[in-house]
Amino acid sequence: MRIESDSLGTKAVDDAAYYGIHTERARENFPVTSRPVDGRLVKNLILVKEACANANAETGRLAADKHRMIVGACEAILDDFDRFASELRTPAIQGGAGTSTNMNANEVIANLAAEMAGAKKGTYELIHPNDDVNMAQSTNDVYPTAGHMALVEYTTDLLDQLEKTASSFLKLAHEHRFSLKMGRTQLEDAVPTTFGKEFHAYYRVLMRDYKRIEAASASLLEVPLGGTAIGTSICATQEYCDAVVPELRRLSGMPLTQAEDLSDAVQNTDCYVALSSAYKNLATDLIKITNDLRLLGSGPQAGLHELELPKVQAGSSIMPGKVNPVIPEVCAQVAFQVVGNDAAIALASSSGQLELNAFEPVMFNDLFEDASLLRGALLTLKKNCLDHLKVNEQRCAEMAAHSAGLATALSPTIGYRAAAKIAQEAVATGESIEVLLKEKINIPDSKIKELLNPQNLLQPANSSVKLETATMLKR
Predict the structure, then answer these.
(1) Checking DSSP bridges between strand 2-6 and strand 9-13, what pairing results, if any?
(2) Fold designation for 2-135
(3) Cβ neighbours for 382, distance < 8 A, ≥ 6 positions apart
(4) Looking at beta carbons, which pairs linking 454-461 to residues 24 or more positions away fall under 8 Å?
(5) Long-range contacts of 212-216 (CB under 8 A, 24+ apart)
(6) Is 316 an annotated catalytic residue?
(7) For residues 261 and 353, is the Cβ–Cβ distance under 8 A?
(8) Which molecular-function annotations from GO does this UniProt entry contain (predicted)?
(9) How many CA atoms lie within 13 A of 437 on its CB side?
(10) From 147, 285, 288, 306, which residue has the greatest number of CB atoms within 10 Å?
(11) What is the mean pLDDT of each run of 10 residues along the chain (475 residues)?
């Protein structure tokens, strides 16, 4: 064991550890979750450290030998992140606004740089975590910058899967554009539609979600790097502030820009609320869609059974042959979690006081979880449900033919009163609308077929179908 010291005293640290006393204290202080800080945030934080070192060297503040050592350590970590992942592990939810994670990165970079130069870990004589690795920086600008970058990466992956899943609905819409079914309002029979229209509506709402998430993610490309502690750039030079974000943009390949108002960018977290809201919107739409799929696939004998959902696993330990809609179910549960996380993010954002919000760790944790869960839900929905979904066209056609809802389409032709009587009798007798029209209304068979033609049921009223004498009920 080696003994390290800080402003609070001394502490023993494992000789083999690249991390130091600050990391050791964090692991002891925050045993609230076994989940470590997200790997993407940590990787981007290391990239931020490299950009800061380059900017400090460019402006002449960081000596050339120290610059080489810091950059060498950063690149070694990024080239073999798995080797250092266990060293770069502070709890995902932590006090201190992310300071523990920032110091963890500083310590690992400093100790690795020292080791690469032949020195012992923990001495910090060649490279100091604060003076050198953290030069011209604060947790309050580097940590959220890394968080922004990680969120952009997570959101890019989510949007890619969202587009693929939405495209599956578009494909289904094309395949079933002529598949007639009864539409329903308030779970009661309404008027005819097609599965093509139903699937296309799902496609459209998901693509609106895509645009909302894309817009919210774009705002994260503006970062607070250079603002240091509270946006006043204390301990940093103007030359460094001008150079650091362009350098990070070059290293990352992301079109990052420095926030116009660094004080605003350091203390306000509305960009996370906006992204969370866009995630929540997708989640609520996913709940609606998957509930529809479960309802339309219910049965197979005592339910609607308009859809045949893929059978992916046995559904009961006691009921033989039962199969449950587990894919829509898991998607809905993911969505519930995202909605709950949105509430936590709103509370965390609104609880920031004065010049800093100390609750970014939980906001990042929940946003990373949201993006990852939603992507997984959309992936399994596409792969294990939509790609093998079948429409029970015969069942749908039979229900449409016997539904009193068809009477609505007849109102312009035979009048509301006559249509209501036809509807009531259809419900009472179970007879089809076509048969009742032939029995009760003075309309030629050819006109009945024209009235009930699916194209006429689904398009704006065709004036050629109207009959002046059609409202006369047979005596």
Answers:
(1) antiparallel
(2) Fumarase C; Chain B, domain 1 (1.10.275)
(3) 161, 164, 165, 168
(4) 454/178, 454/180, 454/192, 454/194, 456/409, 457/180, 457/191, 457/192, 457/406, 457/409, 458/180, 458/192, 458/193, 458/194, 458/197, 461/412
(5) 212/278, 212/281, 212/282, 213/155, 213/158, 213/159, 213/162, 213/275, 213/278, 213/279, 213/282, 214/155, 214/159, 215/278, 216/155, 216/271, 216/274, 216/275, 216/277, 216/278
(6) yes
(7) no
(8) aspartate ammonia-lyase activity
(9) 27
(10) 147
(11) 93 95 95 94 98 97 97 98 95 96 98 95 94 98 98 98 98 94 90 93 98 98 98 97 98 98 97 98 98 96 94 88 94 98 98 96 98 98 98 91 77 84 86 83 79 71 43 39
Residue 16 CB burial class (10 angstroms; 0-12, 13-18, ≥19): exposed
Pull the structure tokens for residue 341: 């996380």
- Within the chain, which residue ranges are assigned CATH 1.10.275.10? 2-135
Sign of CA dihedral 60, 251, 365, 73: negative
For 31, counting Cβ atoms within 10 Å of its Cβ (0-12 exposed, 13-18 middle, 19+ buried), the class is exposed
pLDDT value at residue 50: 98
User: Contact, 434 vs 452, CB < 8 A?
Assistant: yes
Say if residues 105 and 45 touch (Cβ distance below 8 Å). Answer: yes
Helix, coil or strand: residue 314: coil
Other CB atoms within 10 A of residue 124 CB = 22
The CATH 1.10.40.30 domain(s) of the chain lie at 404-465
**Measured on CA atoms in the order 93, 97, 99, 102, is the torsion positive or negative?**
positive
Length of the chain: 475
Side chain identity at residue 80, one-letter code: D
User: Distance between terminal CA atoms of the chain?
Assistant: 103
What CATH architecture is 404-465? Orthogonal Bundle (1.10)
What does the block give as tokens for 469? 């004498």
Q: Give the per-residue pLDDT at 455.
A: 67
Q: How far is CA 212 from CA 86, 144, 378, in A?
A: 36, 22, 17
Residue 474 has a pLDDT of: 44
Q: Which CATH architecture has domain 141-393?
A: Up-down Bundle (1.20)
Q: Which residue has the tokens 């990352």?
A: 252
Contact 117, 219 (CB under 8 A): no
Q: Any idea which residue has 């607070």 for tokens?
A: 224
96 phi/psi in degrees, rounded to 5: 95, 10
Supply the pLDDT for residue 465.
39
pLDDT recorded at residue 308 = 96
Catalytic pick from 86, 316, 350, 351? 316
Cβ atoms within 10 Å of 402's Cβ, excluding its own: 20
- Residue 454 is predicted with a pLDDT of 67
Which pair of structure tokens corresponds to residue 28? 């002891």
The pLDDT, as a whole number, for residue 364 is 98
